[in-house]
Amino acid sequence: MPTRLWDPRLFRPQRLRTFLVLFALALVIPLVAQAVFALNQMARTEQAEIERRVMQTAREVTAHIDRELERAFVTLETLATSDALKRGDLRSFHAQALLALKPSDKAAIVLLNREYGQLLDTLRDFGVALPPTADPATAQKVIDTKKRQVSNMFRGSISGRPVFNVEVPVLDEAQDVRYVLVMSFQASHIADVLKYANLGEPWITGVTDNNGIILARSERHEEFVGRPLPPELFEQSKSAKGVFRAVNVAGDPILRATVRSDHSAWFVSATVPLSQVEAPLTRSRLFAVTLLFTALVLGVVLAYVFGSFMTRPLATATQVAAAIGEESKHVPLSPLAEANILIETLQNASAELKRRQEHAEFLMRELAHRAKNQLATVRGMALQTARDSVTLEEFVAQFTQRIQGLARSQDVLVQQNWQGAWLDDLVHAQLDLFGASKRADVKGPTLFLEANAVQNLGFALHELATNASKYGSLSVTDGALKVHWEWTAENHVGFVWLEEDGPAVTAPLRKGFGHRVIMELVPRGMRGKATIEFRPNGLRWCIEFPGDHAINPSNAHAAT
Amino acid sequence: MMNLEMHPGEPNRFWLGPGHSDPLGSDPKDEAPSPATGIGNLKVLIVEDEFFIALDAQTQIESLGCTVVGIAVSADEAITIVEREAPDIVLMDIRLQGVTDGIDAAREIRTRFSSRIIFVTANTDPSTRARAHAVQPTAFLEKPLTPLRLKQALFA
């Protein structure tokens, strides 16, 4: 029992296009999935790289700031060793302090006494009365610790601008704090340092003091300086280690890294908009969706197009198959080679089937024709036999024998597809009916007679053999029979029936129907001439008929 | 039923069936009238390459009081006899010896002579019939030939 390729209960038959679409999807989806996975990995790598850069930037900016602060400390600590200061010559020290400042520093040097009073300020001429410092806490911390300090942001007592102080102690000989030397920077100085890092859009760096107040910002510094960080962000900045996601003071989602300054303990941060961080992933997802959509659309469209390349020729092949056995029409070549082979095979099968149908119809017509012809022949044979018979028994015997003789001729004709028969086959077939095939000397050139001649000569042979078996050489054991034929010079066939060593022969007084057959009817039917000799030694019958009764069997066609 | 008819000096005649005079015969309703019925004497040529069939046709034609002027086995022989004997009717088989068939021979006879054509053939397929009818024959008879159909065709 043949195995089914599929179970129709589970999967009903589908169109070729559906299989092609599925095939396209089967090819596309794994590729797209791989591409999406690779893109996602790349996006995550890029994202990790951005996070690393954020952290690195925060560290670098912190280092910049610490260098600036260190420079300020060094300047102040150098000034603290000034002889003028030791001598108490504050005027000279004011001049020295002015020289120590760079114009770009956006800073002033202030000398405080232990009561936080400003003894000099490089922003003012020496001797001008000055208010107390606005940040006494840091000064007190310096006095208490005798160590350098950096303040948080505060408003300058003179300028009112956001400032911060870098402060060092000035010790007397007893190592007590005599003065607090201050370099007071505008907060924008740190903003300049941040800008110096030149990270460009959309990077933002910023510095927040220990109170959570924005000290500097690389972008929109003036707008945000002095404003407190959102408490949540400040708490995140204090507790976070590394990079974290947050919402900045402007309300934008950001990726932020915060590093604390060594000198000031400020929170130095580098941020990048979250949209920038997630752009690779978003881009990857968008690309994946586009790729998937394109692949699907392209897959379906191409499946449809290529499906058409296949379904149209197959539809044509189906039409050819449906019209099999009918008149074949010209079918143009299709682009599908297999379909062309199928169509050609079907057309060949159709042509062969049509040929066989026509041949079958021809055979049926032939059969009908031959049957009717044979019936007519048998009817004629019966009538003629009846006319020549004296008794019913004689009629039955003669008629039966003639029917058998006719049947023998039919046998040899059927063996050759009714095209004709080999002459020696015909002779042997007729003699065999009388058991005389082996004792006869049958000899002559190979000769294929057309069907009508076979039937006519068959009748003659039957009548001769009947006579010989009754009265001639075949009626005795020692009798001999020679059946010879040859081509004559006139391209006729000379055929001889020669009986020898049989009973003595005399010419019959009455010529029956058999005599008429061999002397009149068969010669006329074969357009030949017959002679008969009743020799004492045996009967000799000759017929000479035109050679056109002999044909090439390969060119023969049925005729009667 | 088998019948036997005996006449002094002649071979006995016997036949099957209930009829009385037509040997081996024919259905009684196919029985042909005898010459004594007064049907005219037509000259008929038989063109048939199978001699038993030709002899049967000859017997039937002569029993109708007509004269068989010859039996031809090929188209050429038929035309020669028509030219010589000018038969009233040619009883023509379609398949004959030689390259010319009975229809072509009949067409030539109809063109050149005044003889009427009766086709007697076992070829009854439509294309052969169509070809034969194009010659405008008097009749188209199927083999085996029966006396009644032959009579109707001869004296149509």
Protein topology:
The complex is a heterodimer of chains A (560) and B (156).
Chain A: H1 16-79, H2 83-87, H3 90-100, E1 107-112, E2 118-121, H4 136-145, E3 149-150, E4 154-155, E5 162-171, E6 177-186, H5 187-196, E7 204-208, E8 214-217, H6 221-224, H7 231-239, E9 243-247, E10 253-260, E11 267-273, H8 274-322, H9 337-388, H10 392-415, E12 420-422, H11 423-432, E13 440-443, E14 448-450, H12 451-470, E15 480-487, E16 492-500, H13 513-525, E17 529-535, E18 538-546
Parallel strand pairs in A: 13-15
Antiparallel strand pairs in A: 1-2, 1-6, 3-5, 4-5, 5-6, 7-8, 7-11, 9-10, 10-11, 12-14, 15-16, 16-18, 17-18
Helix pairs in contact in A: 1-8, 8-9, 9-10, 10-11, 10-12, 11-12, 12-13
Chain B: E1 2-5, E2 13-16, E3 43-47, H1 51-63, E4 67-72, H2 75-85, E5 89-92, H3 102-112, E6 116-121, H4 126-133, E7 139-142, H5 147-154
Parallel strand pairs in B: 3-4, 3-5, 5-6, 6-7
Antiparallel strand pairs in B: 1-2
Helix pairs in contact in B: 2-3
What does this structure look like?
- The complex is a heterodimer of chains A (560) and B (156).
- Chain A has 13 helices and 18 strands.
- With 560 residues, chain A is an alpha+beta fold.
- In chain A, the strands form four sheets. In chain A, strands 1, 2, 3, 4, 5 and 6 form a six-stranded antiparallel β-sheet that branches.
- In chain A, helix 8 packs parallel to helix 9 (337-388), helix 9 (337-388) packs antiparallel against helix 10 (392-415) and helix 12 (451-470) packs antiparallel against helix 13 (513-525).
- The model of chain A is unreliable at 556-560 (pLDDT under 50).
- Chain B has 156 residues and is α/β, with parallel strands linked by helices.
- Chain B has helices at residues 51-63, 75-85, 102-112, 126-133, 147-154, and strands at 2-5, 13-16, 43-47, 67-72, 89-92, 116-121, 139-142.
- In chain B, the strands form two sheets. In chain B, strands 4-3-5-6-7 form a five-stranded parallel β-sheet, with helices on both faces. A two-stranded antiparallel sheet of chain B has the order 1-2.
- In chain B, strand 5 (89-92), helix 3 and strand 6 (116-121) form a beta-alpha-beta unit.
- In chain B, helix 2 packs parallel to helix 3.
- The longest helix of chain B has 13 residues, at 51-63.
- Classes of the chains: A alpha+beta (560), B alpha/beta (156).
